[in-house]
Amino acid sequence: MKSTGSYIHVLITATALASCSMALEANGDLVAQQDYVMVCTDAGAGAYEAFPDVCRLKDGRLFSVFYAGYTHVSMPNTEHPKGGAVAGCFSSDEGKTWTPAQIVYDGPDDDRDPSIVQLGDGRLLCNYFSLKPKEGGKSAAQRAACSWDGLGSWLVESSDAGKTWSEPRCISSDYYCSAPIREMPDGTLILGLYRETANDSNGAVTLSTDHGQTWSKPIDIDNGGLKLDAETDVIRLKDGRWYAAQRTAKESMRYSISEDNGKTWGVSKPMGFPGHCPYLHRTPEGIIVCTHRIPNTSLHYSSDECQTWSPNVEVDSVIGAYPSMVTLKDGSILIVYYEEGVGSSIRARKFRVDKDGVTWLKW
């Protein structure tokens, strides 16, 4: 399969969200009142930043990775011969300020949608996926028709806290990723994936039992008869089961449960609210937060291990999302997300959440 289907969010955002930049301008006064900081406004690859992820390093710093390009899909061109890249910034003050961006990985194609994790052994794993131009697909008309092929999901590794990175290793040649690698208590790694075939689309996971050196054949999650854009993320529940959240195009997002550490999954069922690009995070108090796009940048939270969810809470009026979260040293939560539109940048806010609601914090 070498079609456009396996990265559905590329197609949707590049077309339907093009009009959202006008909405952002219209809502400028509202956005200006919100207490956020900028993680990065220009990584040097065309001033379009998107799809961020964040983790805490063992040395106490925060590390955010994100897509750096010149537009939503940045194919190689004369000005940017290597296309979009994976970039990153560090924060030593709990997300208030960030270092200038540095390149994590920039291959010959459009490398995008990165996520980051630091494993128990200290290694950083950054996963992403890549697109390349179709042969003969270099005209403006062909680019407008989404003339690219997918190269699957990949990772690069760092053993020195992000100073240097390995050569890329393939995770899957025909499944795609939009969430970070998660580490199980026994050291097994699990990563949410997604794909589209000629007739269907679904979420999946892959497992690694050798610290990320090799990965299992993707394990499909039954979509229950509904095509799922998926962008799967997973979280471990207190009883040891794993919960997978999956995006849909229009209806409620879906979830699935695994009772055997990701080896098999139940049929996907409605979560109860719509959303794109779900990201799952457990607070120190045990509340699970699901951040997502639609409406705008939003979150829901659960106090009962994802059995029920709160009403929607808007994070920001910008539409990019692809959010990620990390716990700060004071127990509050940092969320990073992106704006979408020309000159898109990476933003961050912080909040606390309990069973009574979300409190936004000032910097």
Topology, please?
Layout: H1 8-15, H2 20-26, H3 28-33, E1 37-40, E2 48-56, E3 62-69, E4 85-91, E5 102-105, E6 110-118, E7 124-133, H4 140-144, E8 148-158, E9 169-172, E10 182-183, E11 189-196, E12 201-208, E13 219-220, E14 230-236, E15 242-247, E16 252-258, E17 269-274, E18 276-282, E19 288-293, E20 297-302, E21 313-316, E22 321-327, E23 333-338, E24 346-354, E25 357-361
Antiparallel strand pairs: 1-24, 2-3, 3-4, 4-5, 6-7, 7-8, 8-9, 10-11, 11-12, 12-13, 14-15, 15-16, 16-17, 18-19, 19-20, 20-21, 22-23, 23-24, 24-25
State the order of secondary-structure elements, H for helix, E for strand: HHHEEEEEEEHEEEEEEEEEEEEEEEEEE
Mean pLDDT comes to: 90
What percentage of residues falls in helices of 4 or more residues?
under 10%
Number of strands: 25
How many domains, as an integer?
Answer: 1
Kindly identify the CATH topology: Neuraminidase
Q: Could you name the ranges where pLDDT drops below 50 across 5 or more consecutive residues?
A: 1-8, 11-33
Distance between the termini: 47 Å
CATH architecture: 6 Propeller
State the helix count. Answer: 4
Give an account of the 3D structure.
This protein is mainly β. The chain has one domain: Neuraminidase, CATH 2.120.10.10. Helix content is 7%, strand content 45%. The protein contains 4 helices and 25 strands. It has helices spanning 8-15, 20-26, 28-33, 140-144; strands at residues 37-40, 48-56, 62-69, 85-91, 102-105, 110-118, 124-133, 148-158, 169-172, 182-183, 189-196, 201-208, 219-220, 230-236, 242-247, 252-258, 269-274, 276-282, 288-293, 297-302, 313-316, 321-327, 333-338, 346-354, 357-361. Strands 1, 22, 23, 24 and 25 form a 5-stranded antiparallel β-sheet that branches. Strand 10 (182-183) and strand 11 (189-196) form a beta hairpin. The longest helix has 8 residues, at 8-15. The termini are far apart. Mean pLDDT is 90; it is low at 1-8 and 11-33.
